[in-house]
Amino acid sequence: MKRPRTPLPLELPLIAFLSFLWMALWQDFTLGTLIVGAVLGTAVVRLFYLPPLRGSGRINIWWVLVFTLRFLAKMVAASFQVAWIAVVRGPKVRNSIISVQLRSHDDFIVTVTGHALALVPGSLVIDVDRTTATLYLHCLNVTDDHDAERIRQDALHTEALVLRSCGNRSDLAVVKAEKRLGRVSGFSKTERDQAIPTRSAAPASARQRRGPAGVSEEGGR
Fold first, then answer.
1. Domain, as residue range, for 22
2. Contact 189/151 with Cβ under 8 angstroms?
């Protein structure tokens, strides 16, 4: 099956990054190395399949600044926290793997959010389910459900700042709606703990309302 061709202008940021990476690897930032890196980068993105990074076309400098300051503050605080846990608790510390389903399915947003979480000491992205935009985080010092929920909400807050900084308008509308309604994406802990009602446990009145369509036994007879 022939894969769809990505327009070259959409691949220019990736080619520029590969060119810079080529110069960094050779530690030679001259024009000749840049040209060779650009040629190799173009060959890589045109000959090998890579998911296209389609930008949203918008960037908010204020939220970029907020995201950057929060990220730096978290890195500093987490560094001291990890050092304290390593010295005081040592190998007795308890870790957990936490799944976080993000709002956006955009590859760029998922990648930036995952890197922002993985670069903070104490947490590491060990897997990504691209189809459901779910990150699996290995987190340090998680002892109960409350800690897991706190980390999940922190990850969603990080994604919200990324969306406010450079997300597309539909994802940004979701973030604004959540703030207006006073809740975050996904199920709350209480909602996740509730048992899923079975068909037999459904109220009789509800089954009778479906009767005219001939779906339920009570209504169909």
1. 9-47
2. no
